[in-house]
Design a protein that fits this description.
Length: 180
């Protein structure tokens, strides 16, 4: 059937706690990702800490989030996962090129991509767009490098892409295979 990543997370929590009513908080769990993602993006774009928090909380007031707060539809969870993916993309875009902190970002990017892929069938569209944007961002940093350094950077980027793919498949595909 369709991807069931959000439902799998609810199932695991319900089985672990024995409280079936927690299924109604499914979207609230994911809403934390969306609020944090919007706050992070706002902060990286120069908004004050208080303003970033307000921006994140305003995300929670989006109609889809309010309407699905106490339900099991996954549109709210899907939008929150996309915001988290975009927040990692913003982190890639705003990190200094010389920090070399891309490997853990690859794991986080892959996990966010896996969530988006595992929650809804439309997941490949935003994940594909974010993946292309990440390659363009990282590739743009290679311009102007000497040939030897550019080759090394290309190899690192290829490794980064394999890590993203492996983590995305692990996170996103687990949901599709465990429940089906």
């Amino acid at each position: 059937g369709y991807p069931k990543g959000a439902e799998l997370m609810a199932f695991v929590v319900i089985r672990a706690t024995g409280i079936a009513g927690l299924v109604h908080l499914l979207n609230v769990w994911f809403l934390g990702l969306g609020i944090s993602g919007v706050a992070f993006i706002s902060r990286r774009l120069g908004v004050s800490a208080a303003g970033s928090l307000v921006a994140g909380l305003v995300f929670a007031l989006a109609p889809v989030n309010l309407q699905q707060m106490n339900g099991t539809y996954v549109d709210s969870a899907f939008s929150s996962a996309i915001v988290a993916l975009l927040a990692v993309l913003v982190a890639l875009a705003t990190d200094r090129a010389e920090t070399g902190r891309y490997w853990y970002r690859a794991v986080v990017f892959g996990a966010c991509a896996g969530l988006v892929l595992g929650i809804k069938g439309l997941g490949p569209l935003p994940v594909g767009a974010a993946g292309v944007a990440a390659v363009i961002l990282l590739g743009g940093r290679m311009r102007g490098l000497p040939a030897v350094e550019r080759r090394q950077a290309l190899l690192r980027m290829a490794g980064w892409l394999w890590v993203v793919l492996a983590v995305a498949l692990a996170v996103g595909n687990t949901a599709a295979t465990v429940i089906s």
